[in-house]
Amino acid sequence: MEITATTHDQQWLEVTFTGGTTGRFYCQWLRDNIPSGRHQDRGQRTFDINALPEATLTTITHTTNEVTVTFGPDDCIDTFTAAWLHQHLNPAPARVTPAPTLWDANQQAKLTFADYPTLLVDPAAKLGWLREVHDYGFGLLENVPTKPETILEVVNLFGYVRDTNYGPLFEVRIEPNPANLAFTNRGIGMHTDNPYRDPVPGLQLLHCLVNESDGGQSQLVDGFAVAEKIRQHHADAFKLLTTWPVRFRYRDDTADLQAARPLIELDSRGEVIGLRYNSRSAQTFNLPPEVMAEYYRAYRTLGELLHQPEAKIEFRLSPGQLMIFDNQRVLHGRSAYTEGARHLQGCYADKDALHSLIRVLEETS
Ligand code: OGA
Ligand code: ZN
Q1: Which one of 128, 229, 314, 363 is separated from 45 by 20 to 30 angstroms, measured CA to CA?
Q2: Per the CATH hierarchy, to which homologous superfamily does domain 105-364 belong?
């Protein structure tokens, strides 16, 4: 990409590139981004905006490959490459990860379990699987040793265990005095875990050690796909679900965890960034009477769509199989089972390390 012409006034630099594309660059933005203002090793900016004078453009010269700018009022001079300027022609998208690939029950036919021992030794295979976890919001593994606590090693594939008051891992099996319906043989509706935390765990892993029961099928649904359906077909419901906060709570002898957020959370540009949905830990809705009826209609719409057969995938985890899912996007549930032994171990992790490793592996492979 080469520069063919430049023009400027005190505020704006206009650069024309080969092919005729032009870009406009603002004086203070240029000053804020001078290459010499970056630390050489890690590229960190070495100054704060309040240390800068309000820059103007005084002199501009260019070659085909770069533009040299003299700034007023302090005569600071620096040079910007054509490639860098061209790269910054358009406002950068807000996303720092690729857009998710939304899915529904048709995903069932495409389910594959990656071979855990292969991922441990083959960076390309690992990258492929990690990308899938990001794109679809879940991933499946097989041939994970059924030795208890192996799940804590599986997390090392991409990141770190998120320790909580439940400890580094939790057991999912029938317990005599269950603190949670998950520790009975009852079915559990689609849900996200721990909506009472702030932030909620970004990833959940469930590793099957024993499964001799009838039933106990694992179910997943793409909450982002459901949220987009609601946005499209039930605009009023979408508005309510994305604005009114719902309180979630977990209480035991030593913990009182609470968070209050809309069931569907949006970023500042309106993109869905997370769902909180868990009928077990949702507290009584505190809504004004004039909103209540409509909110319940919206809540019911969300609940129905999350449990629709057309939206869900369902599979049975066998010993040595493991699923990981984005706990802010993909809701999970399980069908009831008879009292044959069933034992899963679960743990949480954060998503940032997963995204980081994908970028690093993409750059090095
Ligand atoms: C849980 C849970 C699913 C299962 O423990 O949070 O959802 O398959 N368990 O038992
Ligand atoms: Zn759960």
Answers
A1: 363
A2: Clavaminate synthase-like (3.60.130.10)
Which three-class secondary structure state does DSSP give residue 288?
coil
Q: What is the model's pTM? A: 0.95
Describe the crossing of helices 223-233 and 289-307 by its angle, rounded to 10 degrees.
Answer: 130
Contact 244, 235 (CB under 8 A): no
Inter-CA distances, 282 with 23, 192, 337, Å: 50, 11, 25
Q: Which ligand 1 atom is nearest residue 170's CA?
A: 5
Look up the CATH number of domain 3-87. 3.30.2020.30
Shortest-distance Cα residue to atom 4 of ligand 1:
334
The Å distance, Cα 3 to ligand 1 centre, comes to 58
Residue 204 Cα to ligand 2 middle (Å):
8
Per-residue pLDDT reduced to its tens digit, 200-236 = 999 999 999 999 999 999 999 999 999 999 999 999 9
* Ligand 1 pocket by Cβ (under 6 Å): 172, 182, 188, 193, 218, 332, 334, 344, 346
Measure the CA dihedral 205/211/215/216, to 10°. Answer: -20
Ligand 1: atom nearest CA of 193 is 6
Residues near ligand 2 ion, CB 5 Å cutoff: 193
